[in-house]
Design brief:
8 helices, 2 domains, Phosphorylase Kinase, domain 1, six-stranded antiparallel beta sheet, alpha+beta
């Protein structure tokens, strides 16, 4: 059965009205619910319904989404099995994936990047406090509404519970999970990572939003893999010809990209605060949307 066959069907009260996308294991639909209104509904592909690992990963995304609540995380409404299908119903977030917005708009001004980093940093901090490491931060997993400049984190499909023993994880030893362009170097061995891996990915996102480039220029997965393991990232002021940032901004971003964990920012809150302070310093103003961040104090 193809994804189009599900349009018009109702799953656990959610009427699927339009197929809007697909991932590695699921199709995504815009749906309508009599109480919750618009929603995004993920349907696990039927051919994977008999795969225990695929089902467990699908349910894990739902369980993690239910466990953490934050204004900058797409809410999880319902999940389970209905009509022979595994489904996950999510808040309908207005806007588009941040990756699409940047592809269309080009690199972003530092104050807008700071606003996005502040929001996603706060969302990640909430997840970390709930014991969840995201592990797949990238612009494609952030919904962005240009009209309100609101950013929302989504897709906990490969997140992990920081309290779970290594024996219980779904990742095979020696295999990393995540997206190579945004993954922390320490994740490449397939070993368990802590929240500093999310710090690295958030810093990579900031780097990309500011410059339109990535810290490593590998053209193939093999080349990129080797660079991540053996080379230092390109300084942000050398990323794009003619584009330069203040020493404070460069220092903040590159601190988040440190391979040495003892030198990398310890928490996403520390990285977001340092980066936003650098942007605010460059702009010569301390108030506005950054003020609440500075009131939180040091991590």
């Amino acid at each position: 059965m193809t994804s189009d066959n599900f349009v018009g069907r109702t799953v656990a009260g959610y009427r699927l009205v339009k197929h809007i996308g697909e991932g590695g294991t699921a199709d995504v639909y815009r749906a309508e619910h009599p109480d919750k209104g618009l929603a995004a509904v993920k349907i696990l592909r039927p051919r994977l319904a008999q795969d225990p690992v695929a089902v467990k990963r699908f349910l894990r995304e739902a369980e993690f989404g239910k466990r953490v609540s934050h204004p900058n995380i797409v809410r999880t409404y319902d999940y389970g099995e209905a009509d022979g299908m595994h489904f996950l119903a999510l808040e309908w977030a207005e806007g588009e994936p941040l990756a699409e917005f940047v592809n269309r708009s080009g690199n972003l001004a530092p104050p807008l990047v700071a606003r996005i980093v502040e929001q996603i940093g706060a969302a990640l901090a909430s997840a970390h406090k709930s014991g969840i490491i995201h592990r797949d931060l990238k612009p494609a997993n952030i919904m962005y509404n240009p009209a309100t400049q609101e950013a929302k984190l989504l897709d906990f499909g490969i997140a992990r519970d920081s309290e779970v023993d290594a024996e219980e994880r779904l990742t095979r030893a020696g295999f990393f999970v995540g997206t190579l362009q945004y993954v922390a170097p320490e994740a490449l061995s397939g070993e368990l990572v802590n929240e500093q891996a999310d710090v690295y990915s958030l810093a990579t996102i900031a780097y990309y939003l500011l410059t339109g480039a990535l810290p490593f220029a590998g053209k193939s997965p093999r080349e990129l893999f080797q660079q991540l393991l053996s080379q230092s990232p390109t300084p942000i002021n050398q990323a794009t010809k003619g584009l330069r940032f203040s020493p404070a901004i460069e220092s903040a971003v590159m601190c988040g990209l440190e391979r040495d964990l003892s030198k990398r920012c310890r928490t996403v809150e520390e990285f977001a605060r340092t980066f936003c302070a650098a942007v605010s310093q460059e702009g010569g103003k301390k108030g506005g949307f950054l003020s609440s961040l500075f009131r939180k104090g040091s991590s």
